[in-house]
Design brief:
By secondary structure, this protein is mainly alpha-helical. The chain has 12 helices and no strands. The protein has helices at residues 32-39, 41-50, 55-95, 102-105, 110-123, 133-138, 142-148, 154-158, 173-195, 205-217, 221-230, 233-238.
Length: 255
Amino acid sequence: MWPWPGIVPGSSLTRVREGAVLSSESPPAWRYAAIRDRLTSERLGSYLAAAGGDLDLAFALYEWNMEASAGALTTTGIVEVVVRNAIDEHLRERTKTAGVAWLDQVPLDAQGRRDITKARERATRHGREAEVHGKVFAELSFGFWRYLVASRYLTSLWVPALHRAFPGGPRDLRTRRVDVEARLQQLMFLRNRAAHHEPIHRRDLRRDHDWAVQLVGWIDDDCAAWLAAKSPLPDLVARRPPLPASPNLTGASPA
């Protein structure tokens, strides 16, 4: 490992004497123009557009986007765990008298059944280990839980069971379902973009934070207070690099 993070051995830009100490004022040991070519102009397109073509500012925004993506994963990760556990609790309650796991009993479409089959394969290492319910439902994707509250399951799952997972939501059960699904859909979209290193710098991340806290609050007030305290999104929004007043948005990618 090189003694100074970010220093490229043999770089023509920066030469560091043995024993030298880098200060916060030291110029970077890399060239953004060279990095741009490695990242490709397509990937940097939305950042350059937002920065009005300023390469240094575009990279500042790109680096901020990396931090924001990590923050988005933290926030949506908390939401996913709280939501899936709440849904699991009420599906187990709904089916416990039948003596059969809800994974085998709930009326899902073909895609839902495939999702459960794949989750069971991963959780049991393709049958080499005993099936444990908690391990199986932990293998189900964020998208699986979002689709359980979709309109297709209004009468089969939402009305008889799943509305109880969000007792603090709107009183009207149809409105509650629509609002829960809308928040889950947006937060899943945010999580997917962040996980795949896509631009999220044009999103209203403050709204995403507020929706995450509200959704979790419909399940449990203490969980919502914890999420509000631990979500890094508000701080990240405050630290977003200042951009030109009227950036050229040509070619910018929506997020």
